[in-house]
Design a protein that fits this description.
alpha+beta; 4-stranded mixed sheet; Immunoglobulin-like
Length: about 270
């Protein structure tokens, strides 16, 4: 082998050694991600906390005469639910609203707001219910002073606010013209949370006895479900059907039949 051939062989060997050396090198891993941002103390800041709920309860007056009404107004922030006791329960809209009540005696209302940001918030409001003023004896006062309203018994207050609900012939749907009476009944029950009632379903004499019993039952339950839908606790309300057995009127006229198509309220002892 001459010198030229020796140089060529040496060059080939060096090239192969360089290639093998390059192939054996391991790939370099990518650099690690940067650390999360920290504050001046070197501690990663926590996510901001949710604000705690707040609530207030107000009224247009805090002193009324028995038989009168007041408007309760609530305002809340950061709340998921708002509840007013006694006798009202959960209310909406949650942020703010007004509810009319007619307490029969002095009462302290408590509003509670709950939310995900902290413990429940509460507020209380005391309503004082006074007896009506005593009537002025004849000749003892000015002639133009009207006599005071008589003090009503519990049964008289019940009869005043819990009027019977009337129905169309062969129907158990709540009529629009009866909803004012149901609003009065709802307000009375919420203002008197210890009162329990029975709803008596009735029908006129047309139709069989069995059919009228079923119709009276549907009417009583329609009124019960309406009151429950307005926030009255269901366990305070019972229902019964008398069908045609207890007519309000016995004449054979449409006006008399209309009086007998009713759901009446009874105050439970």
């Amino acid at each position: 082998m001459n010198r030229s051939q020796s140089w060529k062989s040496a060059a080939i060997v060096l090239t192969l050694m360089a290639f093998v050396s390059f192939a054996c090198k391991k790939s370099v891993p990518p650099p690690p991600p940067p650390p999360p941002p920290t504050n001046a103390t070197g501690i990663t800041p926590a996510a901001p906390a949710l604000p705690a709920p707040t609530v207030t309860l107000r009224a247009d007056t805090v002193t009324i005469t028995r038989g009168g009404t007041i408007n309760l107004t609530w305002e809340s922030r950061n709340a998921a639910t708002v509840d007013i006791q006694p006798g009202i329960g959960s209310v909406t809209p949650i942020a703010s609203g007004t509810r009319q009540v007619s307490p029969a005696s002095s009462v302290t209302y408590t509003v509670t707001a709950t939310g995900p940001g902290g413990p429940p918030a509460t507020d209380v409001l005391r309503i004082t219910v006074n007896d009506p003023p005593a009537p002025v004896a004849a000749g003892s006062g000015p002639a133009n002073v009207a006599p005071a309203a008589p003090i009503l018994t519990s049964q008289q207050l019940f009869d005043r606010d819990m009027k019977p609900i009337n129905f169309d012939y062969d129907k158990s749907d709540i009529r629009e013209d009866q909803k004012t009476k149901l609003t009065s009944a709802t307000n009375y029950l919420k203002a008197n949370p210890n009162v329990r009632i029975t709803i008596e379903g009735n029908a006129d004499e047309r139709g069989s006895e069995e059919y009228n019993l079923a119709l009276g039952d549907r009417r009583a339950n329609a009124v019960k479900q309406y009151l429950v839908g307005q926030g009255v606790a269901e366990n305070r309300i019972s229902s019964v059907s008398y069908g045609e057995e207890r007519p309000e009127c016995s004449a054979q006229t449409e006006d008399c039949f209309a009086q007998n198509r009713r759901a009446a309220f009874r105050l439970n002892p």
